[in-house]
Amino acid sequence: MSFAPGDTVRVSGRRHEGHHRTPAYLKGQTGTVERVHERFLDPETRAYGGDGTPARRLYLIAFELDELWPTYDGGADDRLLVDVFEHWLEEAR
Amino acid sequence: MHDRGGWPTDEPIDRSEHQLADWEMLMDAIVGALGQRGVMNVDELRRAIESMEPAAYESATYYERWLYAAETILAEKGVVAPGELDARLAP
Q1: B46 vs A25: CB contact, 8 Å cut-off?
Q2: B46 or A1, which is more confident
Q3: Could you tell me the CATH number of the domain that includes residue B56?
Q4: pLDDT band at A36, cuts 50/70/90?
Q5: What is the ipTM of this complex?
Q6: Ramachandran region of residue B53, left (φ > 0), alpha (ψ -120 to 50) or beta?
Q7: A89: which strand partners?
Q8: Residues of chain B with C-beta less than 8 angstroms from the C-beta of A18
Q9: Which overall architecture, per CATH, does domain A8-91 show?
Q10: From CA A23, how far away is CA A11, in angstroms rounded?
Q11: Closest chain B residue by Cα to residue A26
Q12: Which chain A residue lies closest to B49 (C-alpha atoms)?
């Protein structure tokens, strides 16, 4: 599944014991695709001596800060921009 | 210590800039050189940092964590023997 700018996506809530780059505070959260990056070698296998293939598509995802942290009072329009790999993203509406 | 970011805290955040010590710049250069030579990569560095005991992680500074991680990975790969660096530092 690939995504385009403006798509609404949900970050997978699955557990993953090994090294991965998806922060816990984003798991299960919904955001919007801001930008489509290129593919990068997969850190989840490179962290253990693997070659990182297949390379994984990376996306810049925007999250509303007051959705991530309901007590956030820095500004209603503030967003957090985080790079998330495609295999951690799901289609959302 | 995995995935430390985003935890709630009542502690104030230290936003002050500080000067790097010489050994910290050297640490950065060593990890950069090891990466360029293909000896270790940043994902291994991060994975090794995450393997630190939580108390050690919390009390270590940024480049102390890099030092721990680089030594861990180099020992894992047989580049240095466990304890070899400590032995060289002994008086």
Answers
A1: no
A2: B46
A3: 1.10.472.20
A4: very high
A5: 0.87
A6: beta
A7: A11
A8: 47
A9: Roll (2.30)
A10: 10
A11: B6
A12: A19
pLDDT of residue B18 exceeding 90, the answer is no
Domain assignment of residue B47, yes or no = yes
Half-sphere exposure for B15 (CA within 13 Å, toward CB): 2
CA distance B3 to chain A (A): 6
Q: What's the pTM value of the predicted model, to 2 decimals?
A: 0.89
- Cα dihedral sign, B71-B76-B80-B84: positive
Distance from C-alpha of B41 to C-alpha of B70, rounded to nearest angstrom: 10
Does any domain span residue B55? Answer: yes
Q: For residue range A45-79, what is the model confidence (pLDDT) as tens digits?
A: 999 999 999 999 999 999 999 999 988 999 989 99
List residues of chain A with CB under 8 Å from any CB of chain B: 18-19, 23-25, 43, 46-49, 52
pLDDT for B46:
96
Show the domain range for B73: 22-89
Pick the residue from chain B with its C-alpha nearest to A18: B47
Residues of B in contact with A51 (CB under 8 A): none
